[in-house]
Amino acid sequence: MSNVPFLTLSDGHRIPQFGLGVWQTPAGQTAQVVAAALELGYRHIDTAAIYGNEEGVGQAIATSGIARDELFVTTKLWNADQGYDSALKALDTSLAKLGLDYVDLYLIHWPCPAQDRFVDSWKALVQARKDGKARSIGVSNFRAQDIDRIVEATGVAPAVDQIELHPLLQQDELRAYAAAHGIVVESWSPLAQGGELLHDPALQAIAARHGKSVAQVILRWHIQLGLVVFPKSVTPARIAENIDIFDFALSDQDMAAIAALDAGKRLGPDPAAFEMV
Asked: Across the strands, what pairs with 139?
């Protein structure tokens, strides 16, 4: 863990820049996967209510023997639970499943703009922070105009915006907006779901020069851009490989070559239209 850098959030709390994501990790495997990651030095775990595996995350934490203040745990408010009262209740439910008194970061998972409940949800998160149930609060998949609305309504900006971000979708405008407003950007789907990028000739050439895998090169790219990244894997060897990215650095030429891969290619849902509950 000593190799993993921290970023300081706008509220003064620190977040490990690298962690483990457990999206699509089966509930029955989650405790074992998280335990393996913790043994390898991971201290940042990113889950969500909709993932259905908060209990497994909690079990791994409870049996790890690691002090709570050495861990950074994120979970998220699902769309169906948006609204002031329901958001507060949902956080209590997540805390019970995790077996924790607080989470380090609580996010609104999607804005769901047509439902138009995210402002009330944000007010609930502000209250949860005051109550000590969430040390930091943020959003996920929010566009600049969505963030503007919650700030106008509450005067409180999110510490984090977690968005789809990978070499095929680099989100330059939203990253620039976040930087201007002191918001840390987290990357989900950082490897663009594998396949296409892992066979890209430019990335393969960079990887060969550094003696690293293409996945390690991409993860290092996220780190050098100042992003928070938490790749998902259930395989201990891959979990170990993913975190082994702090003994090399990409050159300016490498970074430029990866920047040239941006195709504006969104692989996940469009936040402007995604309303699933």
From this structure: 108, 161
